[in-house]
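Please check this today:
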Amino acid sequence: MTTRLDVATLMAQARAETGLDDFGDDWFVAPLTKLVDCVNAEAGLIAPDAGAGYRIQSGLADRLKLIRYLKDHPGALDEQINVACAIIGLPRTGSTIMHRLLASTPQTTSFMWWETTFPLPFEGEVPGDPSPRIAAAHQVVDQLLENWPDFESIDPIEAEVVAEEVILLDRTFLSTSYDSMMPIPSFGYWQADQDQEPAYRDLLLWMKALQHQTPARRSRKWVLKTPHHLLGGMSGLLKVFPDVPLVMTHRNVAQVLPSYCSMCASMSVNSSTSYRKEDQGAHWTRRFKTGLERFMELRQSLPEGRIVDVRYEDTVTDPIGTATRALKAIGLEVGPQDIAGLEACIDANQRESRPRHRYSAEEFGLTPEGIASDFAAYHEQYNV
């Protein structure tokens, strides 16, 4: 007998775990409730209390801890957050390596995987020494790769590299992570239609808390990156960071969509009784197409030069030159130290060091002809 998740129970468990009771602004209860309802109705999870339930309860516990941190360290609210850019392309478009490149210079900073997983100091942690959290993050990575053995060939998970802010947005319960990890299509469509300004206001609070813990970041500009910006979060991103330059990574969707479906399969196939590979193509076709169409319409209202377009092929063939052009386009000077950072990044991110990712479009109900038809307008506009 499966366990149904319950919002009140999850919140009570988070309070009991932390000994805290102030969640701050309760705006998040509505998306949390929608998420729980969709998990119960659609996800078919073998152990919902251990999978989704644990992830949701952990997110609630972190919300409690964030409010406590801001009360204990009110100066964190005064942190000035400067954002260099937000990388907004679809997943699998070269956005990960572009993220690592743009965040590798002395002028920029970004979220580290260990700190998106454990964003607040552990009890007894020495200020300025997050080594206990880093060690714990390494253990989490090992567990994830054990649970998702195919993932290493699909998308790199490493404790001490830059990571997407979507992991922090997971704590708002408005996030593309959830319909990527579980077969809950109705939640994915619903969240993409919401005004996500409150979620991005929460993201800004997380950034302030993280910068407060590492004052050296005050002289650097943040590089944001997650496909969630394009797949639901754009309204929130542009309301909370109204002047942020946008770096849009592009690749032919026939090379993107089946790959992303394969990544989702690796997270779902062993944990859900309702997951069907052949349904994934239609779901992510709709999600990708809606996100692209809405952004292509929005783009017409944005100032010229606000968006830097980066083609996947250019990132692959000339990563340092492409990243240099992007840095200059977002208003940063590029000097010898920046080039050295870019070169070190390339040396540390050789694709050949990871297993080859194997998949086919057909197993997800896709055909090359169908993808070409569905995304013809996008391919034509961006010459991909």
About this structure: The mean pLDDT is 94.
